[in-house]
Amino acid sequence: MSEIHNVVIIGSGPAAHTAAVYAARAELSPVLYEGFMAGGIAAGGQLTTTTEVENYPGFPEGISGPELMDKMRAQSTRFGTKIITETIAKVDFSERPFKLWPEHKLDKDPILAKSVIISTGATAKTLDIPGKDNYWQRGISACAVCDGALPIFRDVPLAVIGGGDSAAEEATYLTKYGSTVYVVHRRDELRASAIMAKRLVENPKVEMVWNSVIESAGGDDKQIRNITVKNVNDGSSKTLDVGGLFFAIGHKPNTDPFVGQIDLDEEGYIKTVPGTARTNIEGVYAAGDVQDKKYRQAITAAGSGCMAALEAERWLSEQD
Ligand code: FAD
Ligand code: NDP
């Protein structure tokens, strides 16, 4: 029979690596499946898609996202975490030990685990408009709270796409920096909760662009300078001069392999018991953006990874 691991960690962002450091230092010999372009993102997770991270404590000068993730990975291996560059495609949590199968090995014997920490993250949705790839991270972002304070976004008009709570929150946040914040929404009614919607539309720096969809982003090859939006009612197009564009059209949690195996909410996020990393399956924990649609920050992901490892350690000690 195959070896039964104490803890298998799935994922490779701040939650996964923090869980790995704690589990390894607790001498649980964790095995971490970091994925191979899982969810379309390189091992290391969402921060590999950004430039400067300025709000992760301990780096007063800021640090590039990929470098921060390299450091987290190095810290995991330093304490003995075994890292495997494969994507987990299927699990069976119906009995213990839990069973996991990597992509391309679905017909092989499963990996066996006494406990599992799921930290597969989420992927910010964007729109494949012309200009997006040219100006991604050169004025185009999917995280206002992360990038909004950068100097390029100061005192210039900015645009936010979306009409939900994220769009309302991010646009309101951006009014601290931008001269005007256009909120481009495809309907004439916000999806955001009443209180956040009110705060948004009453902000004097916000200009709503109703019934409109973005068509393209243009610029000067260094940075985005404008967007073109189309009114869906009359088909007319107009150009808005902007120095920044933020997508806030939702996230997709990376939970496909867990459908039917664990309780997910209506949007596909893993449900955890509030204030803990516990899921509805004893011995299976979830940490990071895969279970958090509110804060979505590296530090909150890392904090919940720590919680998951401590809970797994305690639970395992009670099993023997
Ligand atoms: P993620 O970072 O989402 O990583 C999870 C990874 O696990 C996946 O990307 C994939 O590689 C892997 N994976 C997925 N499925 C599987 C599977 N089935 N098997 C194996 N592996 C799998 N936050 C900040 O605090 N500061 C910032 O400046 C900041 N900037 C950002 C900029 C951008 C452009 C974006 C998109 C996000 C930014 N964030 C920032 C948010 C931050 O990146 C996330 O909150 C954080 O990375 C979430 O960490 P996580 O551990 O939950 O997983
Ligand atoms: P939502 O799915 O709630 O909203 C997405 C928005 O983007 C909608 O207005 C939608 O338009 C629009 N949209 C989606 N796809 C497209 C597209 N292809 N083109 C143009 N527009 C598009 O996502 P959020 O991230 O805003 O919120 C997710 C969850 O997290 C919600 O439950 C929310 O309440 C919660 N949340 C809570 C916060 C808080 O309480 N502080 C902060 C942020 C999120 P349409 O309305 O027409 O469908």
Quickly list its features:
320 residues; alpha/beta; FAD/NAD(P)-binding domain; 2 domains; 7-stranded mixed sheet; 5-stranded parallel sheet; 19 strands; 23% helix; binds flavin-adenine dinucleotide; binds NADPH dihydro-nicotinamide-adenine-dinucleotide phosphate
Brief write-up:
The strands form 5 sheets. Strands 1, 2, 5, 6, 7, 8 and 19 form a 7-stranded mixed sheet that branches.
Describe the structure.
The protein is built from seven helices and 19 strands. The protein has 320 residues and is of the alpha/beta class. The chain folds into two domains: 4-123 and 251-319, FAD/NAD(P)-binding domain, CATH 3.50.50; 126-247, FAD/NAD(P)-binding domain (3-Layer(bba) Sandwich), CATH 3.50.50. Helix 5 links the parallel strand 11 (158-161) and strand 12. The radius of gyration is 21 Å and the shape is elongated. It starts with a strand and ends with a helix. The model has no long low-confidence stretch (mean pLDDT 96). The site of NADPH dihydro-nicotinamide-adenine-dinucleotide phosphate has 18 residues, from helix 5.
Number of spatially distinct domains: 2
State the CATH class of the largest domain: Alpha Beta
Instruction: Please tally the β strands and state the result.
Output: 19
Oligomer: single chain
- Bound compounds, please? flavin-adenine dinucleotide, NADPH dihydro-nicotinamide-adenine-dinucleotide phosphate
